[in-house]
Specification:
- By secondary structure, the chain is of the alpha/beta class.
- Helices cover 29% and strands 26% of the residues.
- The strands form four sheets. It has a six-stranded mixed sheet with strand order 7-10-11-6-12-13, with helices on one face. Strands 3-4-5-14 form a four-stranded parallel sheet.
- Strand 10 and strand 11 form a beta hairpin.
């Protein structure tokens, strides 16, 4: 793949070479811009669209122009969008003969592995995926607060705030249900908060005693009274919390059926890793399932596609 353009979300990055933005030693000659029309004029086959949340106006403009979109921006099926916005996306794909695809680490890679594991089963009762990690190194106070951390566990509508912030997990649950041939009757959400037993100063935010330091919840898909897919999290922050289940420091992927299948994904640094923490690894883990899917998405039929529609997404052998 050839890089032809880069979009800058910050004004201070406009005009900066992509290599400098990425910490790469060799200049690319491609400088960042905040002008989407300028990027469209480059006639790219695809773009990796990775803000925190999707902007439907931006997406429709790209898709209408024939730019295939691969995204980590809280998008799997588009199910959390309003019917009107989802219709706009579909029409934009039809106009531009383009495709939109969403993935990432969780949701994304974890769902693909859950679906693959189900292929070893004679019958499947439930696919359950749990992100079981300490979130203390994810230095975004706004995001963590929206997920309940550092807040009074009795705050009105706190559970609803967490549901909204994590709603893309429900999209991934619906995708898995579709992949195993289960027609869902409804999606539900449940969450349990655990309070801190002491004060924690994380630098970028505080977790005071008796505020939320653990969040354990699932988006669940049901067929009748049977829970067939579950996607959720067992998250903690700080040292003064005991979660409902012990942390496994990775993604726990389980298929209940005949036979039962279970694996835990651990994202670990290579020997030459130099970053003091592991946040950079998490960014790679999130970005590459999207980036590596570009060729398959370009080749896919127009419209909204998911992991179940694409051939296996793989990485590339290291050069040199």
């Amino acid at each position: 793949m050839d890089l032809v353009g880069v979009y800058a979300h910050g004004a201070d990055k406009v005009g900066v070479d992509a290599a400098e933005l990425a910490g790469w030693p060799t200049p690319t000659g491609v400088t960042a811009t905040d002008d989407i029309e300028a990027l469209i004029a480059l006639r790219p086959d695809a773009c990796c669209y990775n803000p925190l949340w999707p902007n439907v106006d931006e997406l429709t403009r790209l898709l209408e122009a024939g730019v295939n979109v691969c995204s980590s921006a809280a998008w799997i099926t588009g199910g959390k969008q309003t019917p009107e916005d989802l219709d706009r996306i579909r029409k934009a794909c039809a106009t531009g003969n383009s495709t939109i695809f969403g993935s990432g680490a969780h949701p994304g890679m974890t769902n693909m592995i859950g679906m693959v594991l189900s292929g070893a089963c004679e019958s499947v009762d439930e696919i359950r995926i749990t992100e079981s990690v300490d979130c203390s190194t994810y230095e975004s106070a706004g995001t963590q607060s929206a997920m309940g951390f550092g807040r009074d566990p009795n705050t009105p509508d706190l559970a609803e705030s967490v549901r909204r912030e994590s709603e893309v997990f429900a999209e991934s649950a619906a995708m898995m249900a579709d992949a195993i041939g289960a027609t869902l009757d409804r999606l539900t959400f449940d969450v349990e908060f655990t309070a801190a037993t002491g004060d924690t100063d994380l630098g970028f935010m505080q977790i005071p005693t008796d505020t939320v330091a653990g969040v354990f919840g699932y988006h669940r898909g049901w067929v009748g009274e049977k829970n067939v897919v579950s996607v959720g999290f067992n998250w903690t922050m700080g040292n003064h919390v005991t979660p409902p289940k012990p942390l496994e420091h990775g993604h726990v992927i389980q298929v209940f059926g005949t036979p039962n299948m279970r694996t835990v994904l651990h994202c670990l640094p290579p020997r030459d890793w130099q970053e003091p923490g592991f946040m950079g690894l998490g960014m790679i883990y999130t970005a590459m399932p999207v980036t590596n899917a570009v060729p398959a998405v370009v080749a896919a039929s127009p419209g909204i596609v998911t992991l179940k529609d694409l051939p296996p997404v793989t990485g590339r052998a290291r050069r040199g």
